[in-house]
C-alpha cells in the first residue's frame, strides 16, 4: 500500500520528527511505500508552490493518508487535497488529538472521516 503522511514540517519538534520517522520505518518494514514530507520533499522552495505540487502528486498516487497534527502546524491545504481526492484517512495514534464533544472542528471531522472512509 502507498501511504502519504500529513504532518508538521516547518515547526516540527525533534521529538515529533524522530517519532514520525520511527512510525514511517515501521510502515516500510511492513512493506508499505510511505511519503513523509519532511523526508521526501525538497523543502528549498521560495514560495512553496513546488512543495505543494509535489505533495499533490504524491498524495494522488497514495492509497491512504495518515495524519499527524500538533495543534499548531498548517495542515489544512494537505487535508483539503486528501478530502477532494477522497482518500481514506487514519489519524496517527499519539500524534493526533482525540475527538471531543465540542462540535465542529477539523479534529472531529478527521475522526468522522476516518470512521466513514470505507464509504469514500
Care to describe what's here?
This protein has one domain: 3-Layer(aba) Sandwich (Rossmann fold). With 120 residues, the protein is α/β, with parallel strands linked by helices. Helices cover 44% and strands 12% of the residues. The protein is globular and about 40 Å long. Strands 2-1-3-4 form a four-stranded parallel β-sheet, sandwiched between helices. The model has no long low-confidence stretch (mean pLDDT 92). It is built from five helices and four strands; from the N terminus they run βαβααβαβα.
For the structure shown, list the relevant keywords.
120 residues, alpha/beta, Rossmann fold, 4 strands
Q: How many structurally independent domains?
A: 1
Please give the largest β-sheet. 4 strands, parallel
Separate helix tally:
5
On the 0-100 scale, what is the average pLDDT? 92
* Radius of gyration over all CA atoms, rounded: 14 Å
| Spatial ordering of strands, largest sheet | 2-1-3-4
Structural class: alpha/beta
What is the CATH third-level topology name?
Rossmann fold
Q: What form results from the Cα inertia axes?
A: globular
**How many angstroms does the end-to-end distance come to?**
17 Å
Percent of residues in β-strands: 5-15%
Assign the CATH class: Alpha Beta
Could you state the order of secondary-structure elements as H and E?
A: EHEHHEHEH
Count of strand segments: 4
Q: What is the level-2 CATH architecture name?
A: 3-Layer(aba) Sandwich
- Helix percent band: 40-55%
Query: What are the segments in which pLDDT stays under 50 over at least 5 consecutive residues?
Result: none
Amino acid at each position: 500500500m502507498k501511504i502519504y503522511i500529513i504532518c508538521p514540517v516547518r515547526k516540527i519538534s525533534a521529538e515529533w520528527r524522530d517519532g514520525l520517522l520511527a512510525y514511517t520505518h515501521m510502515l516500510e518494514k511492513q512493506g508499505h511505500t510511505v511519503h513523509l514530507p519532511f523526508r521526501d520533499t525538497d523543502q528549498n522552495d521560495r514560495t512553496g508552490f513546488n512543495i505543494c505540487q509535489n505533495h499533490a502528486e504524491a498524495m494522488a498516487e497514495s492509497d491512504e493518508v495518515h495524519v499527524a497534527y500538533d495543534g499548531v502546524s498548517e495542515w489544512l491545504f494537505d487535508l483539503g487535497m486528501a478530502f477532494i481526492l477522497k482518500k481514506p484517512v487514519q489519524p496517527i495514534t499519539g500524534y493526533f488529538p482525540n475527538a471531543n464533544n465540542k462540535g465542529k472542528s477539523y479534529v472531529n471531522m478527521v475522526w468522522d472521516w476516518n470512521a466513514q472512509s470505507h464509504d469514500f
